Amino acid sequence: MRTTDWFDKYLFGELSAEESREFDARLKSDSAFAEAFQKHQKLIETFNQHEQHQQLKSILKTIHQQEFGKDAKIVSIKEEGFIKKHGKTLSVAASVGIIAVLSTIALLSTGGYLLKQQNDEMQKLSRKIDGIESSQGAVIDFVTKVNSKINKPHYAPATIEGTGFALNNKGYFMTSLHTVKNADSVFVTNNFIERQTAKLVFTDPELDVAIYKIDNNDVLKKFTFPLIFKESTSGMGESVFTLGFPREDIVYGEGSLSSTTGYHGDTTMYQMSIPVNPGNSGGPLMDEQGNVIGLVCGKQDKLEGTGFAVKTALIKQSIERSANDSLKKELSFNTKKGGSLKNLKRSEQIKKIQPFVFNVMVYKK
Prior knowledge:
Elements: H1 3-11, H2 17-29, H3 31-68, H4 82-110, E1 122-124, E2 127-128, H5 138-147, E3 160-166, E4 172-176, H6 177-180, E5 185-189, E6 196-204, E7 209-214, E8 228-229, E9 239-244, E10 251-259, E11 269-272, E12 284-287, E13 291-300, E14 307-311, H7 312-322, H8 325-330, H9 346-353, E15 357-363
């Protein structure tokens, strides 16, 4: 359960007595958690203010109809006596306008839609759950929660969430190292597998790559592994797509390779014209035929619609260079051409890929 869901359950009185005591205890002991809760609470208050604003608009509309009639014509404010006759109504209307603007600004700022200017640097894309960053999509989450309540198992909220994707159906998967750095425990899940524990088996800090193994060896055996890892360099302008978890559900993005190098000409990366967000880190970048060509790792501040991905061909070389012989065999990439995704419609490709793309949940003390 995400932190925002936990906050909502507390505010709506949906937690058990024991869970409420746990929540209150964490508010007292964890200042970051308490600060995130206060921000989320303000977001809910903003929704309530918005609802009150809509009610006020309805009342003013009624006043307008009573004052001017349903079919009232527009009257110039220069006409003699206008201010004297309608000044009170005009003042109320102006106040409502100010309320509407301020409410909109507050709502967008709290939800993370008005972004502060940042330095022109590459931004890594881990999704921080304990901070207000987790309110990306909070508007949608809130409306959904009001309209329908979904019963799910209760888990402690992760500190950070990201994306990972499988190397084979033996349980090995890769993700971004910055997402799992200093993790006490890591879990993965998606719409096809229940929450599973995983252990670290390989890292390359220079490429920002970590490889884990799901503890349950059989969890992916029932699915046919479809991914092929491209060894040659892809060309600028090629169509590409991504799958990742910038929110709780998997999200698809598509675009093209805008450069065969990354941030500041980094030759270990591709630059792509696909919007990526916190939570996308560790997801696969794939070409038109469904071949994996990169691991999504970040985006450039101030440059919307642009992302970067580490080239998987270089990750393969890193494993061959640094891993021991037994691990090399376990982590071998499928590089055979003409796999099961070739020439399929995109929707069919995604169906086959989805079981092997995971929401990665990271816990830190």
